[in-house]
Amino acid sequence: MTQFNESELTEAVVKSFDNTPNPRAKFLLQELVKSLHDYVSKTNLTFEEWDYAIDFLTRTGHKCTDTRQEFILLSDVLGVSMLVDAVNHREREGATETTVLGPFYVGEHKVTPHGTDISPHNLTGEKMYVASRVMDLKGKPLAGVPVDVWHADDDGLYDSQKPDYDSVGASARARFITDNEGRIAFRTILPCSYPIPTDGPVGEMIMQTKRHPMRPAHVHFLVNAKGYEPLITHVFIGGDKYLDSDVVFGVKDELVAKVEKRSDATTPDGKSVTAPWHLMTYEFHLKPGSGLAPKPLGTKAAEPA
Q1: Taking the CA of residue 144 as centre, how many other CA atoms within 13 Å lie in the half-sphere pointing to its CB?
Q2: Which of 11, 96, 196, 269 has its CA 20 to 30 A from that of 245?
Q3: Which helix (H) or strand (E) holds 68?
């Protein structure tokens, strides 16, 4: 007869999943049990510490809304998001590097004409012109590809973080479709480095452990071409002081762009601009394959059949 004590309990719990119909689900659950039990044993976890952990996770869930995902933030700051990304993108074969999706992909990305200013209401940020190109691994331009972009403003806030978001709507985010040369272009403002939200349990953990909460300035891109793996990445602003200490560990050298400060009276599309302004250029190279692009925040997961 099994004794549910420290020496036999783990094996009994693992065995309880033996009849799981889905082999992958069985494997994941049994490995999770082993890892969790090993953690408890190694750390001699106390009742008080376990109660605190349960409360922390409960508060993390309560902080989630349709426009804020505190669990994604927790995964990000623990490096789990980047590790999941890494093990799923081990062979890049010259394709552009990936990085975390982040917790602010809320999905109001409407198809927008090239050259549009996606931050028209921001009167304080310095203007930036972004010119990007989407190609395959051999340098062939990919036409008709949807490219979602989003970034924080010069206060370090995403539109969905602002109290007037429901009434004002999307800002500093849009979807562009590549032209016959694989190009997109848009106007916006120069984003700045910013702190992750610190008004929830994840921010509490970061502050109590004396980690800084900062992310280096960047623009998010989601490139979703038929016949290619979806590309989820950032382009970072070169020279940002947080590039080597990103709180979510998302920076890769290849994703750092040299953003030029310009004094020209017009942007590359011939439109007038007040100097100074900034020019970001970047080429994306996609890997053949397939996959599902992530669903925006607020999308409900389907129930299993």
Answers
A1: 3
A2: 96
A3: none
Structure tokens at 24: 């992958």
Query: How does DSSP assign 27-51, residue by residue?
Result: HHHHHHHHHHHHHHHHHT--HHHHH
Neighbour-count burial of 161, counting CB atoms closer than 10 A to its CB (0-12 exposed, 13-18 middle, 19+ buried): middle
pLDDT digits (tens, 9 = 90+) for 164-213: 877 777 889 999 999 999 999 999 999 999 999 999 999 999 999 999 99
Cβ atoms of residues 150 and 172 within 8 Å: yes
Q: Residue 100 in contact with residue 248, Cβ under 8 Å?
A: yes
- Between CA 190 and CA 291, with CA 179 as vertex, the angle to 5 degrees is 85
Name the pairing type of β-strands 127-136 and 277-286: parallel
Q: Which helix (H) or strand (E) holds 166?
A: helix 165-168
Residue 299 DSSP one-character state? P
Task: List residues bridging with 90 in a β-sheet.
Answer: none
**Cβ-Cβ contacts under 8 Å for 57 (sequence gap 6 or more):** none
